[in-house]
C-alpha cells in the first residue's frame, strides 16, 4: 500500500499483512485507495515555517543545480542520493527519521535553498499543526 493513495502527501510504500482466523468466517478488508493524491504545494499551503537548518557549503552549492524532484546523485553520481529537492506538484518522497541540513538525509524545499522545517515535515506526514 502507498500512503499517497490514503490522503497522506507522501509517497510511502508499505507491505501490510492482514490475518483473520478461519473460524470468524469473514474476509480481510482494508481501506479503499483514492485516485486523488495531495501534492507538496497543497500540503504546505499556509504552513508557518519554523526554524530550518541551513544547508552546508557543499550542498548549498549543489542545491541550485538539483532539478525539481531530483537529488544530489543526479550531479555527484551513484551513492550520493541525499539532498532531495521536493517536487511541489507531486507527493513528497518518504521522509527520513532525521533532517541534518548537511545534505545527508536532507529533504529540501523546492523553491527556497533550505531544508524543510519541522512544521513542513509534520504536514507532509499528515500530523496536525
Binned, the helix content reads 10-25%
Q: Order of strands side by side in the largest beta sheet?
A: 1-2
Mean pLDDT: 87
State which percent range the strand residues make up: under 5%
Notable traits:
elongated, mainly alpha, two-stranded parallel sheet, 129 residues
What would a concise description of this structure say?
The protein has 129 residues and is mainly α. The chain contains 4 helices and 2 strands; from the N terminus they run αααββα. 17% of the residues lie in helices and 3% in strands.
Describe this protein's structure.
By secondary structure, this protein is mostly helical. The chain is 17% helix and 3% strand. It is built from four helices and two strands; from the N terminus they run αααββα. It has helices at residues 40-44, 57-62, 73-76, 118-124; strands spanning 84-85, 107-108. Strands 1-2 form a two-stranded parallel sheet. It starts with 39 loop residues before the first helix and ends in a 5-residue tail after the last helix.
Write the layout of secondary structure elements.
Elements: H1 40-44, H2 57-62, H3 73-76, E1 84-85, E2 107-108, H4 118-124
Parallel strand pairs: 1-2
Amino acid at each position: 500500500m502507498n500512503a499517497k493513495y490514503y490522503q497522506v502527501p507522501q509517497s510511502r510504500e508499505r507491505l501490510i499483512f492482514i490475518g483473520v482466523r478461519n473460524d470468524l468466517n469473514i474476509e480481510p478488508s482494508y481501506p479503499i485507495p483514492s485516485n486523488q493524491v495531495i501534492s507538496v504545494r497543497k500540503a504546505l499551503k499556509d504552513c508557518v515555517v519554523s526554524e530550518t537548518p541551513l544547508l552546508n557549503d557543499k550542498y548549498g552549492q549543489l542545491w541550485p543545480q538539483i532539478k525539481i524532484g531530483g537529488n544530489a546523485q543526479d550531479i555527484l553520481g551513484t551513492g550520493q542520493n541525499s539532498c532531495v529537492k521536493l517536487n511541489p506538484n507531486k507527493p513528497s518522497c518518504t521522509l527520513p527519521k532525521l533532517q541534518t541540513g548537511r545534505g545527508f538525509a536532507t529533504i529540501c524545499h523546492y523553491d527556497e535553498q533550505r531544508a524543510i522545517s519541522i512544521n513542513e515535515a509534520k504536514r507532509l506526514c499528515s500530523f496536525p499543526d
